[in-house]
Structures are given as structure tokens and as C-alpha cells.
Design goal:
By secondary structure, the protein is of the alpha/beta class. Helices cover about 35% and strands about 25% of the residues.
Length: about 280
């Protein structure tokens, strides 16, 4: 997407490696470039282990350092260098600048704190000017479609279904009004009906709030609905990138073609998925 405005997020030659036992060093991301504009949605597609989540976590410096070694020619959010940020600046970036929704809400929510406590804590940290953070927390539970929101606000995470827990995570991410939402396989742990509801909710809220979004998935079938551009990652590298129409309509890399062949189609009757040479 071309724009005269500077990108919200700009990455050049991002490289991430993990130091293993002894001298073993594993490269998770190699030479990744990305410019993300305000309000734009990009899907990052690839199988498990392709480097998608490592890239996403590095943006708010959530990877454990020094075990994770991150290098980049440029790594900026709103024109500011992310590696140069101090702890106070990073605290502001995490939540108010970049917010995350992960695939497993049960591991993201604190099991011993009520939903109210967790939402209000985020609001007090990132929106301290609010006169009534509890009322704002209730508003966001209602906004993400949780029924009987007032009683759910006082519940513990284990008292909610998986779908409700994920809605709480979306409310917690968006109540701080981030400029960038990173949704990392946010529907994988849910049943098919709830997956559709959560996907529709994310699409609606992104458009309503004008947020940018990085949507991480291995499922090319939903990319057309959530993104304008696509990055295909394989073995730590971006092997193909472009608009949704370009990548899905005229893929050039064998790995992208292989992923597309994995999407079920009603007009095909295959005993086995075709194997493409990579």
C-alpha cells in the first residue's frame, strides 16, 4: 500500500536467532522487511516454525534476551527505534502502541485474578486519565459481545468458556486503544462456530477503530477476509509478498502454491494432497 505518510511500523533486514545448548545457534527469522501503514492489515502466513510468532514477539521486545538475539538495520514504530527504547518507553509501547491477542487465552489470562482486575489494571496503566476504569472495562466486555457483561466482569477466567476468554483477551487488547493489533492464530484453539464469531469481531473492530493489524495464520482460506496484503514465510524467510489478489491469485513461489493446494475445495475429490517440489 503506497502512502505519503511514514509507515506506522518499519522493519529492514530483521534477523532473529536463538542460542541453544553449547555453541548451537538457530536462526528463526532472516532478512525480513516490512512497512505497515496506519489502518492497514497484513496477513503473515506459514507453517509452524516458519518464524511468524518470533517476528511478532520481537516487535515489542517480548522475546527473552540474551537467549534471543535480535538484529535489524531498521526497527521502528511511529518513527522511534524499538531497540533504543528504555523500560518506561517499552511499557508504553506494550499495550498502548502494540497489543497482542494470542491463540490460547487460558495461558494469557491470570487464573487467580478476576476479569475486572485484569482489565482495570491495563486501563490504569495506559489510560490513567479515566475517571471510572471499571465502567470502561464493562463497556469493552459489552463491545466484544459478552452477554451478562456485569457478572462476567467479576468472574475468574476458568468460569468462562474458551470463546468468552478470547473475547476478554480482545477487550483487554483494544481497551488501551493500540495503534497496532497483532493477532497470532487467535482462533486456533476454538471450535469452528466460535472461530467464525471471533474472526468477524476482529474484522469489525479493526475497521471501526482504524487500527493496523498483523494477522498471523497458517490458514490461507481466511486471508482474503482479514488482510489487504500477504507475507508468506518459510524457514525464517519471506518467500513471497504482495496484495491478497496477487499472492492468492497468481502465486509464484512453490511453497505458496503448496499452501494453496492445502485449502479444501468443493470441486476437488482428492485422496491425497499434491506434493510440490520446494
Amino acid at each position: 500500500m503506497s502512502s505519503s505518510k511514514p509507515p506506522l511500523l518499519s522493519l529492514r533486514d530483521l534477523r532473529i536467532a536463538f542460542q541453544g545448548a553449547g555453541a548451537q545457534r538457530v536462526e528463526a527469522v532472516r532478512g525480513l522487511d516490512l512497512d505497515l501503514q496506519q489502518g492497514e492489515s497484513v496477513a503473515v502466513v506459514g507453517e509452524s516454525g516458519s518464524g511468524k510468532s518470533a517476528m511478532a514477539l520481537s516487535l515489542a521486545r517480548l522475546l527473552p534476551e540474551p537467549a534471543a538475539q535480535i538484529q535489524a538495520q531498521r526497527m521502528e514504530f511511529e518513527g522511534r527505534s524499538i531497540p533504543a527504547m528504555n523500560e518506561v518507553q517499552l511499557q508504553s509501547l506494550r499495550g498502548a502502541g502494540i497489543a497482542y491477542v494470542f491463540q490460547e487465552p487460558t495461558t494469557s489470562l491470570n487464573p487467580v485474578l478476576r476479569v475486572r482486575t485484569q482489565l482495570v489494571e491495563a486501563l490504569r496503566l495506559h489510560r490513567p486519565q479515566l475517571a471510572d476504569p471499571r465502567a470502561e472495562a464493562l463497556h469493552w466486555l459489552e463491545r466484544v459481545g459478552i452477554t451478562e457483561a456485569a457478572s462476567r466482569l467479576e468472574a475468574y477466567p476458568h468460569e468462562l468458556s474458551g470463546g468468552m476468554q478470547q473475547r476478554v483477551m480482545i477487550a483487554m487488547a483494544l481497551c488501551c486503544r493500540p495503534r497496532l493489533l497483532i493477532a497470532d492464530e487467535p482462533t486456533t484453539a476454538l471450535d469452528v462456530t466460535i472461530q467464525r464469531q471471533i474472526l468477524d469481531l476482529l474484522i469489525e473492530l479493526r475497521r471501526e477503530l482504524g487500527m493496523s493489524m498483523i494477522f498471523i495464520t497458517h490458514n490461507l482460506a481466511i486471508v482474503r477476509e482479514v488482510a489487504q496484503r500477504v507475507m508468506v514465510m518459510w524457514r525464517g524467510e519471506v518467500v513471497e509478498t504482495g496484495t491478497v489478489e496477487q499472492v492468492l491469485g497468481q502465486p509464484t513461489h512453490p511453497y505458496t502454491k503448496a499452501l494453496l493446494h492445502c485449502v479444501p475445495r468443493l470441486d476437488q475429490n482428492l485422496d491425497r494432497l499434491p506434493v510440490l517440489g520446494l
